[in-house]
Amino acid sequence: MSEIDRVDAKMAFTDAPTPEAAGALTRLSAQVRHDLEMLDYPAREWVRPHTHRSGRHVYDVVIVGGGQCGLAAAFGLMREKVGNILVVDENPEGLEGPWVTYARMVTLRTPKHLTGPDLGVPSLTFRAWWEAQFGAEGWEALGKIPREEWMRYLRWFRRVLDIPVRNSLKVRLVEPLEPGLFEVKTDAASSIPPILARKVVFATGIQGGGEWHVPAFIKSAVPPARYAHTSEQIDFGTLKGKKIGILGGGASAFDNAQYALEAGVGEAHVFIRRERIPRINPIRYMENAGFLRHFATLDDATKYAGISFFLQHNQPPTNDTYNRAAAFSDFHLHLGSPWTHVEEIADGVRVVTPKGEFLFDFIILSTGLLTDVALREELSAVADDIARWHDRYTPPDGEDNALIDKHPYLGPGFEFTPRTAEGAARIHGLFAFNYSALASLGLSASALSGMKFAMPRLIEGVTNQLFMDDRGVILDEYFAYDTEEFLGA
Question: Are 264 and 168 in a shared domain?
Answer without folding.
Answer: no
